[in-house]
Amino acid sequence: MTILFYRRDGGGAGLATLPSGLVFRIWSPGDQGPPPAGSQRASNWTWWLFETLGLFSRPGFREVTIWRDGQLVHRLILTPRWPRFPFMDAYDLQVGDIWTHPGVRGQGLARLALTAVQALTWPEERLWYLVEANNAASVRLAETAGYRLFGSGRRTRPLGLATLGRFRLDAPIAR
Ligand SMILES: CC(C)(COP(=O)(O)OP(=O)(O)OC[C@H]1O[C@@H](n2cnc3c(N)ncnc32)[C@H](O)[C@@H]1OP(=O)(O)O)[C@@H](O)C(=O)NCCC(=O)NCCS
């Protein structure tokens, strides 16, 4: 599967005002410690450990969620470099695990969350967004949120195991 590597600079936006009934929550383990109620999924405990043990290239992991009536309707994470993403520089961040509840897709929630990412970051911070080439919704989202195609690549599978794999940027198209 071809992976498209998009990127843009951070910063340049204030936190958007959400439509009524929607609430942003930002979890930053470096500032707030272990995952709070609503964020206690297994992956977040892993990210908390990464941050606590200094396994990222720098501090700065964050989870951005949007809630409606107590229900999670959107989630994404921002991760600094770690070994699965060797093409990143130490100060870069990556938008990952972006997900909107199937019942509310196409209503602009992912776009709002990416606006929050801009508000949480600085122009010096380069943001990456990786997407499988056939994921039309995610490609469209990246492109309309100001990300520019940087190149293409793939995820390696040592011993046939994707979990051990890394994302390799094979063909940069712009510098
Ligand atoms: C990708 C995903 C997060 C988008 O979330 P969303 O909240 O529906 O996105 P938005 O409503 O903010 O839409 C953003 C843009 O994508 C477009 N879009 C949304 N769904 C689309 C689809 N199925 N096909 C093409 N474009 C689509 C929207 O039209 C909008 O562009 P526009 O402003 O030009 O109209 C959501 O589809 C999802 O959770 N998919 C499953 C998980 C996934 O694939 N994550 C991405 C991994 S890289």
General description of the model:
There is one protein chain. The chain is α+β, with helices and mostly antiparallel strands and about 180 residues long. The chain has a single domain (about 5-170), classed as Aminopeptidase (3-Layer(aba) Sandwich), CATH 3.40.630.30. It has helices spanning about 30, 40-55, 110-120, 135-145; strands at about 5-10, 20-25, 60-70, 70-80, 95-100, 125-130, 150-155, 165-170. Strand 3 (about 60-70) and strand 4 (about 70-80) form a beta hairpin. The longest helix has 12 residues, at about 40-55. The radius of gyration is 16 Å and the shape is globular. It starts with a strand and ends with a strand. The mean pLDDT is about 95. Coenzyme A binds near residues 98, 99 and 141.
